[in-house]
TrEMBL record:
It comes from the Bacteria. The keyword Nuclease applies. It holds the Pfam family DNA_pol_B_exo2. This is 3'-5' exonuclease. Gene3D superfamilies: Ribonuclease H-like superfamily/Ribonuclease H. InterPro entries: 3'-5'_exonuclease_PolB-like, RNaseH-like_sf, RNaseH_sf. GO terms for molecular function: exonuclease activity. Keywords: Exonuclease, Hydrolase, Nuclease. Residues 62-226 form the Predicted 3'-5' exonuclease PolB-like domain.
Length: 238
């Protein structure tokens, strides 16, 4: 395997509003959400409850993680590059994060590099915040306390694409399109996750979507390093 591809763990998370029923929220949280909703309201027609179901999953204070997909490059018996993927899914967020943490701690944190798309602004801090909310101590790979910028082993494909340009957000789907990588956006997209979870009760569908996203992420990383993508036959689910 090419040395720079070793020890990278690709990550994608799916999040939803922390509660199915807005009215079941703690009164203190309702007050705080009302303040947040005031900044998010596009017009006077949307209630705090409407905005909660549409946007709460984006914020770690009001959402929760239901799925984490991971991917890691591997050597195939043929000598070709492969990608091994695994999905952690659970309605119980604490159990999900505990299992994910246990997986991270099996890998040498001194060499492990985590990679996500917009991960430095979303995936990594979201996971950390939800772990602490669930009284889970942060694993070494996510604990940035006291570390200098150059000591943080986190990669971000959106950052790699920007080349120092911080003007705008570029979606994973757009980059997949311009690099001709098969998209994960087939029968659903990220904006539908809350509906699929709470109204369709289909966590499995979300997990498959999340896994496809982490495959696209790994393929994009290869393209950003000017390598060939991995053929579908070399992508393994464990």
């Amino acid at each position: 395997m090419i040395p720079e591809l070793r020890d990278i763990l690709f990550i994608d998370i799916e999040t939803v509003a922390a509660s199915r029923d807005y009215n079941a929220l703690d009164e203190r949280l309702k007050v705080q959400w009302a303040r947040k909703a005031g900044f998010l309201r596009r017009d006077g027609q949307m209630s705090d409850e409407d905005i909660y179901h549409e946007r709460a999953g984006i914020y770690a204070e009001f959402g929760k993680i239901i799925c984490i997909a991971v991917g890691k490059f591997c050597d195939m018996e043929s000598g070709e590059l492969g990608l091994r993927t695994k999905v952690f899914q659970n309605h119980d967020e604490k159990a999900l994060l505990t299992e994910f943490k246990a997986m991270l701690e099996k890998i040498d944190s001194s060499t492990l590099r985590l990679c996500a798309h917009n991960g430095k602004e979303f995936d990594f801090p979201y996971i950390c915040r939800r772990m602490l909310i669930n009284s889970i101590a942060l694993p070494a790979a996510l604990n940035l306390s006291g570390k200098k910028g150059w000591e943080v082993q986190h990669l971000d494909t959106m950052e790699l694409w920007k080349f120092g340009d911080y003007k705008h957000y570029t979606s994973l789907d757009l980059l997949a399109a311009i690099f001709n990588i098969p998209s994960s956006k087939t029968d659903m997209d990220g904006s539908q996750v809350n509906v699929v979870y709470y109204k369709e009760n289909d966590l499995e569908k979300i997990s498959l979507y999340c896994r496809r996203d982490v495959v696209v992420l790994a393929q994009l990383f290869l393209k950003l390093r000017a390598y060939s993508v991995i053929p579908e036959s070399n992508i393994i689910t464990v």
